[in-house]
Amino acid sequence: MLSRVCRSGSPSFTYRLLPWVQSTTLSRSCRVQPSAIRHVRSWSNIPFITVPLSRTHGKSFAHRSELKHAKRIVVKLGSAVVTRGDECGLALGRLASIVEQVSVLQNQGREMMLVTSGAVAFGKQRLRHEILLSQSVRQALHSGQNQLKEMAIPVLEARACAAAGQSGLMALYEAMFTQYSICAAQILVTNLDFHDEQKRRNLNGTLHELLRMNIVPIVNTNDAVVPPAEPNSDLQGVNVISVKDNDSLAARLAVEMKTDLLIVLSDVEGLFDNPPGSDDAKLIDIFYPGDQQSVTFGTKSRVGMGGMEAKVKAALWALQGGTSVVIANGTHPKVSGHVITDIVEGKKVGTFFSEVKPAGPTVEQQGEMARSGGRMLATLEPEQRAEIIHHLADLLTDQRDEILLANKKDLEEAEGRLAAPLLKRLSLSTSKLNSLAIGLRQIAASSQDSVGRVLRRTRIAKDLELEQVTVPIGVLLVIFESRPDCLPQVAALAIASGNGLLLKGGKEASHSNRILHLLTQEALSIHGIKEAVQLVNTREEVEDLCRLDKMIDLIIPRGSSQLVRNIQKAAKGIPVMGHSEGICHMYVDSEASVDKVTRLVRDSKCEYPAACNALETLLIHRDLLRTPLFDQIIDMLRVEQVKIHAGPKFASYLTFSPSEVKSLRTEYGDLELCIEVVDSVQEAIDHIHKYGSSHTDVIVTENEKTAEFFLQHVDSACVFWNASTRFSDGYRFGLGAEVGISTSRIHARGPVGLEGLLTTKWLLRGQDHVVSDFSEHGSLKYLHENLPVPQRNTN
C-alpha cells in the first residue's frame, strides 16, 4: 500500500493507493490546492476525489456539438507535437500550452488523461550532451573549436534514450501542472499490461483511483523494455489491439477506461483524402467507418512510430468501442494554443470520427453544389433567370396557406422564448407575402442585363480590344435571424446576379425557412439548377461556416448587431458585408417645419422600432427648447409610449429630466429614444460622426442651404433631407429587395441590391499580340482609345 501526504502551504490531505496497485510503474507530483478538489468523500477515513459523470458511456457522440458534454477525455500527443524540429529535445512552448488547456478542462470538472511521446527525444538530448561532456577536455582543446562542433556522435539506441528521458520528461510535466495546482502521475505500460488479465485489472484500478483523486494520469509505453511490435497483430477486432505505438496505446486506453473523447494531436490538420500537400488533397471534416477506401495515405510523420494510417485504424477501433475521436494539428502556432479546448467546445477543428452519417449533404458538399449551380445560373439567358424569379413570386402567393401554417408553428414554439421585437420579425402575413412577391418581380425586371453588362471598352492597339464586364461574385453565405422573409428576397437577388447561395437561418424560423427554401428550389427546377441555393440545416456553428474560405466568397449577416460583430470577428479570409449597428440620427434644425417634424419622428421611431433603420437618437437645436414644436414632439412620444433617455446636455436644461442615457452610442431596437441638444448643424454633424454607425442620418429643415451642407458633410451610407429614416431600404429604393445594408466603404454601401452582388472581370481579344511588339524598338504602339459602350436596357 502506498501512502503520501501533500502539502502546499495550506491544510493538507492524505490519499492512499489501494493494495491492487502493484504491477504498474507509478510516479507523481504531489502539490494539490484544496481549491482544485471537486468533492471529497471518505470510506474508512480514506479521502478521495469524485466527479459525477454527465453521461453514461455506451455510444460515441454523433455530432461535434455534443463534444462539450465529454467528461472523460484522453489527449494523445504525437512525437511531432512534443519534440522540436531537430528531434533532439522537447518543444517546451507547445507543451506548456497543451498543459494549460488540459488544466483548464480538468478544473472544469472533467477527467483528463495524457498519452505522451517524447521520452526518446528528451533522452537523446541528454545522452548527446553527456557524450560530448565525456570527451577528453585535452582532446577538445587540441582539436579546436571547429573540430569539436563536428565531433561524431554515435547512433543512440532508442531504448537507452527512453530510459534516460523518462524521468526528465515526467519532471517537466510535474513542474508545468504544478503551476495550475494539479497533480500528475506517470504510468508506463507495455502490451502485457493489456493482455495479461491480472495486470489489466491492476492498470484499470490504478487509473480509476487516480481519476477519483483528481490526478491527471500521464501514460506512455515503457520504451526502455518494450519489445518490437508483432507484425499484423493489431487492430484485428474490438477485443484485440497490440500496443505497437502511442496511437494504438491511446485507443486501447480510451476504450479500456470507457472514455468519452480521444483527441489525437499530430503535425497535420487532420485526415486528408490524399497525402497532405498534394494538389488534390482536401481535409475530411467527418470520417465514417467504411470510408477508408476513399483515402490515399502518405508517408508517416518525421518522428514517431505510426503514420496517419495507424492513427485512422486506432481511431476506428476506439470509435467501435464507444469513444469519439478527433485527429487535429497540435503543432501549428496559430491554433495549438487553443486546439484542445476548441475541440471540446465543438468547433470544427481537425477530423471528427462519427458512426452516424447525416441524412443530407455536408456543408462542404452544399458549398460545392452552390458553386456549380451558381456557375450554371450565370450562363443562363437573362430572360431565363427572370423567369425563375417570376415563378418564385407566383409560388409565394399560390402557396400562401402552407407558408403561413409553417410560420404559425414557428411563432407557437417561439412564444415566451423571444422578445416582442424578434417575434414581430419572425411573423409572416398575407400582406408581407404580397409585398415580397411585388419586390421579387421588381428584381426580375431589373436583372435583364445585370450579368455580362459591358462597363468599359478600350482599344489597346489595332485588333486588340479590352472589355470590362460584370460577373457574379461567386458563392454567398447569408446568415439571418428571425427573418424568414429574408430567404426569398436574398434568393431572388442571388438568382438575378448568377451567384450560388448558402443560407443559414435561425432555428426559431426553421419551419418557415424549410418551406420557403423548397419553393425556391421548385422555381429553380424549371431550368434544372435547383442546387444553386442551399439551406444549411446541419449543426454547423456560425463560426465554423465563417472558416470555409475556399468555398465562400462573401458573407452577408442579417440580424442583431451582436450577430454581425461575431461574424466579422470569426470570418477568416472571407469579406463580410454589413453593418454591426443601426444608430440612426435625426437632426431637427431651428428652421424645421412644425407640421413635418412630428410626422417624421413618429414614422422613424414608431413605425417599426426593431428595424435597423429606425431612429435611435433625436438631435434638437437649442433654440427649439421650450417652444410649441418641442412640446409637440414630447407629447407625441408620450402618446406612442416611447421611453425617453436624456443626453448630457439635454439633461442639464431640465429640472426634472428623464433617465440620463448610459451611452450615446446605443441601438435600442424598441420604443426607446435618446434626445440630445446641439447648438448648430455643425455640432449635429460632429455628434453623428462621433456616436453614429454611418447607417442613416436625417436633417429636418426648411433651409435648403443648411440641408445641402448636412447632406454633403455627413459621412454615412444614407443621408436624407425631410424624409423618414425608414426609407433606407432596398425595396423602397426601387431595388426590389436587399441582401442587407452595408456601412463599409469598399464595394457596396447602403441598401445592397442586385448591383452590390456583382463584380467584374476583364476580357481581352487579340490577334497574336505579344508584349515585346510594344517595346521601344517594337513594331506596335499603344492606342488606349475609349470605345462606345453598349447602352443599358432600362425597360
Automatic annotation (TrEMBL):
It catalyses: L-glutamate 5-semialdehyde + phosphate + NADP(+) = L-glutamyl 5-phosphate + NADPH + H(+); L-glutamate + ATP = L-glutamyl 5-phosphate + ADP. InterPro entries: AceGlu_kinase-like_sf, Ald_DH/histidinol_DH, Ald_DH_C, Ald_DH_N, Aldehyde_DH_dom, Asp/Glu/Uridylate_kinase, G-glutamylP_reductase_CS, G5K_ProBA. Residues 363-625 form the Aldehyde dehydrogenase domain. Signal peptide: none annotated. One of its GO terms (cellular component) is mitochondrial matrix. It is found in: Mitochondrion matrix. GO terms for biological process: citrulline biosynthetic process; glutamate metabolic process; L-proline biosynthetic process; ornithine biosynthetic process. Its EC number is 2.7.2.11, 1.2.1.41. Pathway: Amino-acid biosynthesis; L-proline biosynthesis; L-glutamate 5-semialdehyde from L-glutamate: step 2/2; Amino-acid biosynthesis; L-proline biosynthesis; L-glutamate 5-semialdehyde from L-glutamate: step 1/2. Pfam families: AA_kinase, Aldedh. It comes from the Eukaryota. Keywords: Amino-acid biosynthesis, ATP-binding, Kinase, Mitochondrion, Multifunctional enzyme, NADP, Nucleotide-binding, Oxidoreductase, Proline biosynthesis, Transferase. Gene3D superfamilies: Acetylglutamate kinase-like, Aldehyde Dehydrogenase, Chain A, domain 1, Aldehyde Dehydrogenase, Chain A, domain 2. Residues 71-329 form the Aspartate/glutamate/uridylate kinase domain. One of its GO terms (molecular function) is ATP binding. HAMAP family: ProA, ProB. In the N-terminal section; belongs to the glutamate 5-kinase family. In the C-terminal section; belongs to the gamma-glutamyl phosphate reductase family. Bifunctional enzyme that converts glutamate to glutamate 5-semialdehyde, an intermediate in the biosynthesis of proline, ornithine and arginine. Can form homodimers/multimers. NCBIfam families: P5CS, PRK00197.1, proA. This is Delta-1-pyrroline-5-carboxylate synthase. It comes from Delphinapterus leucas (Beluga whale). The gene is ALDH18A1.
